[in-house]
Amino acid sequence: MAISAKDVMELRKQTDCGMMECKKALTEADGNFEKAIEILRERGLATAAKKASRVAAEGMVYAEYCPKCKVGVVIEVNAETDFVAKNDKFVDFVKEATKVVMLQNPADVEALMACKTEAGETVDEALKNLILVIKENIKIRRFVRYEGVCSAYVHGGGTHGILVNFETTNDIDSKDEFTAYGKDIAMQVAAANPSYVDEASVPAEVVAKEKEIMLAQMAGDPKNANKPDAVKQKMIEGKIKKFFKENCLVDQEFVKDGDLSVAQYTAKVAKDLGGEIKIVKFTRFVKGEGLEKRADDFAAEVASMVK
């Protein structure tokens, strides 16, 4: 019998299995939903749905740049335990998903799930097959894709992933010295955690809020409360400069040489290479940031299983 797209979607909704698997099961079951669900369960595919409710805050962050196509990607894929990040199949899936983002440019995670991998299956199907093998909930959480000259850096085996985007001239990005410079900047982002590229990138409302907080602090400080407004404004200007130096990438002290700012280091490298370098934007992913961690005692869980 003919299987409608509506039926396939309904079965997918009930089981969280891939579209093709749902269609095959419905076809084999002659359209009988209960039989199709049973078929999926027998094949172990429906078990993926059960795992979808479990907390996934481990896994890994990965970043990669393709100099030939000038596209960079940073991605976070989460799992339930940190053991998974060391699993070759999991790592291969993360790298394959990164490649799909790089080549197919999906708009978001939902669009990525519908993209085809080199093997011909969708990312969604590949993910569900991986869940069956690893037996943990796994989710692609987020990704960022930049076009143009980039530097990608992965720290701590996947705890941090950094992607920095540059504008350059005179093809200096093809030189080994620029590659080393790009890694330095990515490592700076990883270590110093800037919030903005430069002062111009800081929203006016953020600066206004900082000034408001500074004024409130002065009002509560007996040493500064009665100072003239002109003096207070001068003090605030100094504090705002310090804020920029701490929070803007190009104003930060270069982690490898405290005598230079990142802007000065960039200018030096650009001059040495005979071109210009501008840091355009960056993304810094930290594995599991903002996610609720598993609260259970894993050691106790294993001990109970042994008993």
From TrEMBL:
Chief subcellular site?
Answer: cytoplasm
Name its cellular compartments. Cytoplasm
The record places domain Translation elongation factor EFTs/EF1B dimerisation at: 72-289
User: What are the start and end residues of every segment in region (Involved in Mg(2+) ion dislocation from EF-Tu)?
Assistant: 81-84
Query: InterPro entries per the record?
Result: EF-Ts_dimer_sf, Transl_elong_EFTs/EF1B, Transl_elong_EFTs/EF1B_dimer, Transl_elong_Ts_CS, UBA-like_sf
UniProt KW keywords = Cytoplasm, Elongation factor, Protein biosynthesis
By sequence similarity, the record places it as follows:
Belongs to the EF-Ts family.
Function comment: Associates with the EF-Tu.GDP complex and induces the exchange of GDP to GTP. It remains bound to the aminoacyl-tRNA.EF-Tu.GTP complex up to the GTP hydrolysis stage on the ribosome.
Q: What is this protein called in UniProt?
A: Elongation factor Ts
**Natural source organism:** Faecalibacterium hominis
- Source gene? tsf
